[in-house]
Structure formats: C-alpha cells, structure tokens
Amino acid sequence: MHEDTDRESGAGTTGALPGKRLRADARRSTDALLTAAAEVFATSGVDAPVRQITARAGVGAGTLYRHFPQRSDLIAAVFRNEVDACADAAEPLAAQHEPAEALAGWLQRFAVFIGTKRGLGAALHSGDRAYDSLPDYFQQRFVPVLGALLDTAARAGEIRADIGPDDLLRATGNLAMPAHEDGEGHTRRMVALLVDGLRYGAPPQGD
Fold it and tell me: H/E/C letters for each residue in the chain?
C-alpha cells in the first residue's frame, strides 16, 4: 500500500514531467478499477466483496478507497462509464451500417447494457444522494444518441417517423429484463421484433 501511495504522490520519481506521470498512473488505476468493477458487478451484483474487484484490477484496497471512498462512489462511476461506452457505440455503428441496421445494432447494445446492470436499479432507488444525478445523466446521454439514429433512419425512409427516443428506450429496457431461462437470447429476439415493428409504416421506397 505504501508503494501505491509513493507512486501516486510522485515520490522518488525522476524526469521532466512528474505531474503527467502521476496523472497517467492515477488514470490507469481508475480505468482498471472501473473495468474490474463493471465485470464483477455484472456477475456478482453491486454488493460483491471489494477484494473481488481489487484482485481483478490488480491494485490494493487502499488504491480503491483513495479513488472511491464509498461503494456508492464506485457504483456511480461505473454506471457513468458504462453509459458513456454505450452511447459512444452509436457513432461507429452509424458509420458502418445503413441507418436502420445501425439503429437495430445500437438498440441491441443498449439492451445488453441494461441486462448487465444487476442490482443497479435497487441502488438507484436506495435514497443514497450519490445516485441523484444518474437518471438525468442516463437521459442526457441516451436520448440525443437514439434520437439521431431514429431521425436518420426515418429520413432514409427505413422506419416510421412517429416514434420518440424516450418511448423506445423504455420499451427496450423492459425487454432487456425478462423472466426467461434464455434471457439474453430472448432479449435479442424481442429487440429484433421491436425493430421490425419500427419498419412497419415506413414510406414505400421511391416515394
């Protein structure tokens, strides 16, 4: 633990830019913790023991608590990080696929995001102030992304134009948590069916 403290404080380092080294080390530690925590939360829930997270990240408990003093701090940071990754996936999908295919691909990605947030719903409704801003963050990141995908597909005549992002986010989120043995496969099929429904009522090609 003292070695972590010395490294992150810059003690004993040489070179022209120790501040940059400190920031890079801290960033790597934070990234490793967020990645590890997301993986552990997905399999064991948000109440998983800290030692599972630190072992997977390859850091000590002291490093975790320096970055995230409370468990709620870590959960909130993981959620924001995962929201960003999901939202950012829309741009490459839009660049690589036709509009309706990009929309379908992103909705499947969003469904996976919802389905792997085991225990997060209970945390968000726990009354902890650390989570107060998360619902708004969710909306701020996802509504514009999905709205742009919908608009592009509608302008291309590939889907109907009367569906808003809020309703579609809610519908996909509901499909992502089925009480079904084949949970992930069932969700994929239901989201594909939902996208097929968006195609119904699209203007005929060439109009």
Answer: CHHHHHHHHCCCCCCCCHHHHHHHHHHHHHHHHHHHHHHHHHHHCCCCCHHHHHHHHCCCHHHHHHHCCCHHHHHHHHHHHHHHHHHHCHHHHHHHCCHHHHHHHHHHHHHHHHHCCCCHHHHHCCCCHHHCCHHHHHHHHHHHHHHHHHHHHHHCCCCCCCCCHHHHHHHHHHHCCCCCCCHHHHHHHHHHHHHHHHHCCCCCCCC
Report, in angstroms and rounded to the nearest whole number, the Rg of the chain calculated over CA atoms: 21
| The model's pTM | 0.80
148-204 per-position pLDDT tens digit: 999 999 999 999 999 999 999 999 988 887 555 566 788 889 999 999 889 887 776
